[in-house]
Structure formats: C-alpha cells, structure tokens
Amino acid sequence: MFRQSKRRVTSRKNFEDQSGLSSGKFILNATTSEEEKQLYETLYDSKLSFYTIPPKGEITLEQFELWAIDRLKVLLEIESCIQRNKSAKEMEVIVKPLLQKLLPFTTDNLLERKKDYYSHFILRLCFCRSKELRDKFIRSETTLLKLRFNMMTSQDQAKFVKTLDLPLLQFISDAEKEELSTQLYQTVSSALQFQLNLTDEVQRRHYFNQERFIKLPFESVVDLVGSRQVFIKKGFAYLPQFQQLNHIANEFSSMLSSALIKTFQCIPRLNEDDRLLPILHHLSSGYDVSNFLQQEQFGQASQGEVNATTVYSEKIRENFPLCAKNLMNGLKENHHLRYQGRQQLSFFLKGIGMNVDDALQFWSDAFTSGGNLTSEKFNKEYRYNFRHNYGLEGNRINYKPWDCRTILSKPRPSRGEYHGCPYRDWNVDKLTLELSQGMNLSSTQVTSILDSVQRTEYTVACTKVFEMTHCGSTAVEVNDQTHISHPNLYYERSRQLQKKTEAPVK
Predict the structure, then answer these.
(1) What is the Cα–Cα distance from 137 to 18, expressed in whole angstroms?
(2) Torsions phi, psi of 123, nearest 5?
C-alpha cells in the first residue's frame, strides 16, 4: 500500500481492501499518468470532495506523515476556533491563510489534489479509535467543508452540488413555490437581510423571486429548524438554495461517521505493519495540542534583545505567558527553582533568544542574590546543567523549548515548585484573582476562560487569554497559527504585536 522513500519493502503484506469500502474505483500509484489525472479530475470535478472512494495506491512514508501533519494543523486551528466560539467570518479570516499555505484546494495541481485526498484518509486512520476522537474529527472536517464551500464562487458551488449523489436534494416546482410564497418569504426574509446583507425590501423581494427552494424531511436540517430559519409543513422543511450548505454538511457528517466506524473495524489489519503504527499514534496523540510548530523560528521576534539584564524589563516580561511569569516570580521570591522548574524556564528563555553566556549570568545572579548560594557553589552544582541544556555538555543535544503538551505531561508541582501549567495546576480562586486583577479581565472573560479550564482545554484557555489581553488581535501570526500550543509561540506573537504598536506611523 505504501512504499518507503528509498527502498521498496517486499516482505510485508500489501493490505487489500476486504471491507467493501471501495466502489470499484481506486486511486492509482504515485505516477502522474494520464489515467490518474483523469481520475482526480473526476474526484475533484468541483474542487471539493466527499471522499467516498478510498485510496489504494502507493505514496512514500515521508508523504504519509507530512501530508497528515499539514492537514492536522488546519483541523487543530478549526477545532480551536470552534472552542473559542469564533463566528464563521472570523474563522474564515483565521483559517484561510493556513489553507492557502498547507492545503490549497482552488488549484488544478495534481500533487496538491492528491495531498488533500490522501491526508483525509490518513487522519481517518488516526481518529477512528474512540468516540471522542471521531466526534472531533467529524466536527472539524465538516467545518472545513463549510469553509471551503463558502470560499468558492457561486458557479463552483453549483458544480459541486451537481456532483453529489443526494436524493433528497430536490427543488420544488414553481407552482408549489407560488402557493407557499407568503410563508416562505416571511421565513427567509430575516436571513436575506442579515446573512446576505440585503437591507432593502425591494432587493429582498427580487432575490426571493429568483431563489429556488429544496423540500426535504425536517430532521435533515434540524439546526435550522431550531432557529426558525426554514418553513415547516407536514414534516417537510423548505430550504432556500443559499442555505443548502447545512443539508450538505449534515449528509457529509453522516457519511463520515459511518466511514470512521468501518475504518475502526479494519484497524487490526494494520498491526502487522510497524512502519505506520508509530506515525498514527504520534498524530492522534497530538490532536488536542499541536507540537508540529517550526521551532526554529522561535527567537526571531526578539532578535538578540533578551539577555541577563533585559529579561527583567517590563517590555520583555509583559509578553510572557502565565506559566513563564509564574516561574520568574518563583525564582525572584526563592532565589532558586527546583529541577523541573529550572528546565522549563531555561528552555523557554533559550527559545526567546537568550544565549548560553547570558543564561549562565542570569541563573548565577538569580541563585546567588539571596545570599544563600555562592558563585563557587553555583558553578559546582548548577553550571553543568545549564550548559547541558544548550547542548554544550554530555551528548550535546540541541534541546527544544517545551511545548504545552510536554509541560502537561510532567508531574504536577508540589509545594515550593513552580513548573507546569497554571491553568491546570492553580485552584479556581487563585486563577480568578490573577485573571481579574493581574490581567484586568472582566468577569465575563474570566468565566469564559474558567469554562475552558473546567473542560481541561488548557491551551484554549491560554489562547483566550492572549486574545483578550491583546484586544483580540490576530494581525501577527507565527507559523500561520492563532491557537497557542507553545509558551514560546505566545511570546513570539505577543512581542511581534508589541513591536507593531511601537513602530512609528509613516
């Protein structure tokens, strides 16, 4: 099914399709043959796909992992936007640059079409293993479909709908529309005004006269029924064409839910392939918190500004996330940090641009300023540790700053320790006090953050704090992501925004 980049593995089974998922067609192997091009033109006749035909060709293991990672970044951002209650318009602004960079769909490029198709099915393997993962995957993929649909032209939208085999997607006759015209117009008038910005009555009437309506069982668009956006008669809902996306999305969700169950039933057949399972486990375990950021970009926002002295300046420290502020406060109070705290703060400072000489000066000053430790004892007991963190001792590994997932995997701090994530480790009263008084957040904002904390969505809580303390700005994006899944990502975005406000207006 897959081949390695440099050599073909012939000793392993080629897993044939025995589940009945295929409808007779399949994606060919990795050559750009004319037959393959024709197949992808069929699958992507309208730039979108329901992914009904599973792939059965060959790709490299490198493509397998990298394509899945790129799609996962997009889905993680969508999931974060959903959890932060972003509107459809706000979500489109956030996700669109990420789509254009990682998962373009408005192109005729064969490789990019293959990437979109394969990455969807690879992530099916990752997120079919539990109901929670399936629900999140369905929600994110369905939202991705909606975003892409709304980003297409009306001609492409109509072309996509025609390619779908949806028997309920039938339009009513002109006679039936005329018979129910009064009720239909009264129902959709507000949607025409607020969704399509048709503020003039004449404009709304003209649009209504040209609009076509779909008649389908009301349970197919139950979301619109609850908000009274469709007219109901004898168990049928009358759906205007500009709202057909709700029905399409529900059909896609239903199809994907069934497909994930079938995929889960086929998972045991993968147990014989030890190439794929580590990759799949790595991808699925990173669903809640992405650790695929380009960490080489960390430190660019400061560009050598952080040293043993400036790290204490208000201009630098106000960009610190709460976990880093907590560590700095603990270091200031005790003139010492225990091992986990030293490691977490040391790697964070390394990530924001502090070099090894300044780091040694910073830690030496912090540990000896309380009078309990001499410079000689610091050099004897701690110097090696900090040089090791910079890859200058031992195995000389260039350690990366800890991301949120790594921090959350460490033991919780006990008394006298300051490492970890405050959103997880602090009690409600302490966290509320810090958010309301330390960060000047309103009671409504604090409640929203605490709700995320209660649902154990700690990175979402941190992302909310960032947006609330930075006026909701997403003007500067690091690695095209707004979801905060790394303390250094918080710092980079904050520092870039700070520099933007400091820059003189030309």
Answers:
(1) 24
(2) -70, -25
Partner residues linked to 237 by β-bridges:
216, 232
Single pTM value for the model: 0.73
Average pLDDT over residues 3-28: 41
What pLDDT is attached to residue 293? 45
**137 contacts 148 by C-beta, under 8 angstroms:** no
Q: pLDDT value at position 366?
A: 95
Based on the number of CB atoms within 10 Å of its own CB, is 199 exposed (0-12), middle (13-18) or buried (19 or more)? exposed
What long-range pairs does 450-458 form, CB within 8 A, spacing at least 24?
452/83, 452/423, 453/423, 453/424, 456/424, 457/83, 457/288, 458/404, 458/408, 458/421, 458/423, 458/424
CA angle 459, 415, 403 (to 5 degrees): 25
Question: What mean pLDDT is reported for the chain?
Answer: 83
R_g of the chain computed on alpha carbons: 27
Mean pLDDT: which of 69-83, 165-179, 273-287 is highest?
69-83
What's the pLDDT score for residue 483?
Answer: 86
Determine the Cα–Cα distance for residues 88 and 454; give it in Å rounded to an integer.
25
Whether 189 contacts 204, CB under 8 Å: yes
DSSP 288-320: SS-----GGGTTTTTTT---TTGGGSHHHHTTS
Q: Helix, strand, or coil here: 234?
A: coil
**Annotated binding-site positions:** 323, 404, 421, 462
Cα four-point dihedral sign 153, 158, 159, 161: positive
Position 385 pLDDT exceeds 90? yes
**136-145, 149-158, 373-382: the lowest-pLDDT one:** 149-158
Please state, in angstroms and rounded to a whole number, the distance separating the CA atoms of residues 25 and 46. 18
**DSSP secondary structure string for all residues of 411-473:** PPP-TT---S-HHHHS-HHHHHHIIIIIS---HHHHHHHHHHHHTT-HHHHHHHHHHHHTTT-
Closest CA to 420 of 482, 345, 481, 357: 345
Arch. (CATH architecture) of 34-164+251-285: Up-down Bundle (1.20)
Give span(s): CATH 1.20.930.80, the chain: 34-164+251-285
Residue 38 has pLDDT above 80, yes or no: no
φ, ψ for residue 403, nearest 5 deg? -85, 175
Lowest mean pLDDT among 16-30, 207-221, 461-475: 16-30
Q: Which residues line the annotated binding site for [4Fe-4S] cluster?
A: 323, 404, 421, 462
Secondary structure (3-state) at 214: strand
Query: CA-CA distance, 401 to 486, in Å (whole number)?
Result: 9
145 within 8 A of 190, measured Cβ to Cβ? no
Confidence of residue 311 (pLDDT cuts 50, 70, 90): very high
